[in-house]
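Problem: given the chain below (271 residues), write out its structure.
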Amino acid sequence: MTDLNTQFEDAAKAVMSLKQRPDNDVLLKLYALYKQGSEGDVSGPKPGFFDFVGSAKYEAWEKLKGTKAEDAMKKYVALFNAQGEPNVTTNHIADDLEISPGNLYYHFRNKDDIIEQIFARFEERMDAALVAPEDRLPELEDIWLQLHLVFECISEYRFLYRDIVDILSRNRMLRMRFARILKRAANSASVVMRGLVRNGAMRASAAEVDATATNILVIATFWMNYSSVRGDRDENESIRLGIVQVMMLIAPFLRDAERLHLHNLTKAYAA
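Solution.
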């Protein structure tokens, strides 16, 4: 939030130093945005009828009342997921929020700015999902739970995965951050499987563990694309199938008792 405040103050100073005076409509919008950004929703009594300038300023500020970046962000995620990121513009989200595009630009510079802020939330959620047990050796249920949390996150931000190549090709910083997520996910999967090897539930070499971790990553990353191309309509069912598919990757390495346990888990999950 500190960076956002700094940007806001810098923008306010830049407005004051414009070489050419903007017209009255632009000045009113700038005034309203500054007041909304620095003080929040409009407050105090509206100036009297004959105070034309004061009334105009008050009304301009009042139009921004209640508009929050959080609301816009949620709308964008919903529209991206429903229609696909390339098909959604800032005008679409402004219409959906019943505000002007200019009001939306108060919170976000452009669509890529929105995607970056959404990605930050996705990144935080994914980091939490990838936490492996630290005080004990992992069990089969730990992999299942971790996959469930990861696929829930993928589902909530599924537009990122459906349009991942296009989005990352436009933004070098997001590409680097997503690569970091993939690296952490591969490491987390390897750590959990090595734990299963140590507790005797799984039999696999170090090379097999690393290769399986990569295969898990590939399936999890592109499962939504595969499901879409295949024509699946029920995304919840698709996610369930994705989790089962990943679990089947480790099934050949499990000992007989754990493989039976995995079979029972799969049946219970499908019920």
